């Protein structure tokens, strides 16, 4: 089969090589699946650089979420078992952690329903307990993770403020349903959020960016607001001033979705049932901005890592 492999860590386009290799052999509890679609995520770049919290043995195949077909014909989504990731013609899934692909979504959309939407649902509902009528501020609102949070926030009855970088991404955020779209390059985010909320601030902040985005969030979060720390695509990990959180009476909530698979896997299945319902009703629909052949995977990882993509780029082996 054909697969992208990383034999040494570095920048994705430099270390990812498309090779011919043997199909992976499933171990106990694993399924061999034909990869129908594998979406590109920021962690794919971190894996290539050796900067992710999981470091698979070399060589490995990146691609951390996929939709695949099992030997019995079932269409499944899940996180592949590394080192046999999704940027290949075949990959391995943990059978117990595999989820049925929603009939309402095609292969690329189904693959994209997994990490970003699970993270968004756990962040907004499990951690922040978002309520209808609240204001949700989403950073990187046009990206793969942010676009999922925007749709889930709207589905929960919240007003959504989306922060993006540039006019093209602003158009994407508006199409996703944001009630207010702000350009981090030109808008005064703190002032605009306070104006939009009549001085109250954002009740919930969804932050996959870190750095300056977090700093601004802390200055416009509401009384009893919640800031969900999802990631640090800016490359800068903020150092929160806990006295500021105390004085303004807001909460800082960490979210590592992968831990639920270890400590509470039943909640992932419950979340998937809810996401399936929302997708069937048309309340959410993953934004797949581009579909590329297997040969385009390395370039796609580079673009996602550089923040130049919107929604999800999908690799179709």
Instruction: Specify the structural class.
Output: alpha/beta
Low-confidence stretches: none
Question: What oligomeric state do the depicted chains represent?
Answer: single chain
Q: How much helicity do the residues have?
A: 25-40%
- Characterize the overall form: globular
The fraction of residues assigned to DSSP E strands is 25-35%
* Main β sheet profile: 7 strands, mixed
Helix and strand run? EHEEHEEEEHHEHEHEHEHEHEHHEHE
Number of helical segments with 4 or more residues: 12
Mean pLDDT: 96
Distance between the termini: 10 Å
| Radius of gyration from CA coordinates | 19 Å
Please report the total strand number as a whole number. Answer: 15
Describe the structure.
The structure is a single chain. The protein has 317 residues and is α/β, with parallel strands linked by helices. The chain is built from 12 helices and 15 strands. The chain has helices spanning 12-15, 42-49, 107-112, 115-127, 144-155, 167-176, 189-196, 212-219, 242-248, 258-263, 265-281, 297-305; strands spanning 2-6, 16-20, 30-39, 66-70, 75-78, 90-94, 99-100, 135-139, 159-164, 180-183, 202-207, 221-229, 251-254, 288-293, 312-316. Strands 3, 4, 5, 6, 7, 14 and 15 form a 7-stranded mixed β-sheet that branches. Helix 2 packs across helix 12. The longest helix has 17 residues, at 265-281. The chain starts with a strand and ends with a strand.
């Amino acid at each position: 089969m054909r697969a992208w492999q990383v034999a040494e860590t570095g920048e994705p386009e430099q270390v990812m090589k498309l090779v011919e290799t043997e199909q992976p052999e499933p171990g106990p509890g694993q399924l061999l699946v034909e990869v129908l679609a594998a979406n590109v995520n920021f962690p794919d770049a971190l894996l290539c650089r050796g900067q992710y919290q999981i470091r698979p043995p070399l060589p490995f195949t990146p691609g951390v979420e996929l939709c695949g077909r099992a030997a019995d014909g079932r269409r499944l989504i899940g996180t592949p078992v590394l080192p046999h990731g999704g940027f290949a013609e075949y990959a391995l899934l943990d059978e117990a952690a595999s989820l049925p692909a929603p009939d309402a979504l095609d292969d690329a959309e189904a693959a994209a329903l997994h990490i970003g939407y699970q993270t968004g649902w756990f962040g907004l509902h499990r951690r922040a307990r978002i309520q209808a009528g609240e204001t949700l501020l989403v950073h990187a609102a046009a990206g793969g993770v942010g676009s999922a949070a925007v749709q889930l926030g709207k589905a929960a009855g919240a007003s959504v403020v989306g922060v993006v970088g540039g006019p093209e991404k602003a158009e994407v955020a508006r199409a996703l349903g944001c009630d207010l779209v702000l350009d981090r390059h030109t808008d005064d985010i703190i002032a605009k959020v306070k104006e939009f909320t009549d001085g109250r601030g954002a009740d919930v902040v969804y932050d996959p960016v870190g750095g300056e985005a977090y700093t601004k969030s802390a200055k416009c979060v509401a009384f009893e607001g919640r800031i969900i720390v999802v990631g640090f695509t800016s490359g800068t990990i903020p150092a929160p001033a806990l006295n500021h959180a105390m004085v303004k009476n807001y909460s800082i909530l960490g979210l590592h979705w992968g831990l639920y698979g270890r400590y509470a896997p039943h909640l992932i299945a419950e979340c998937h049932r809810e996401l399936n319902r929302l997708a069937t009703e048309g309340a959410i629909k993953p934004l797949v901005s581009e579909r590329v052949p297997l040969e385009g995977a390395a370039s796609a990882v580079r673009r996602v890592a550089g923040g130049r993509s919107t929604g999800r780029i999908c690799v179709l082996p």
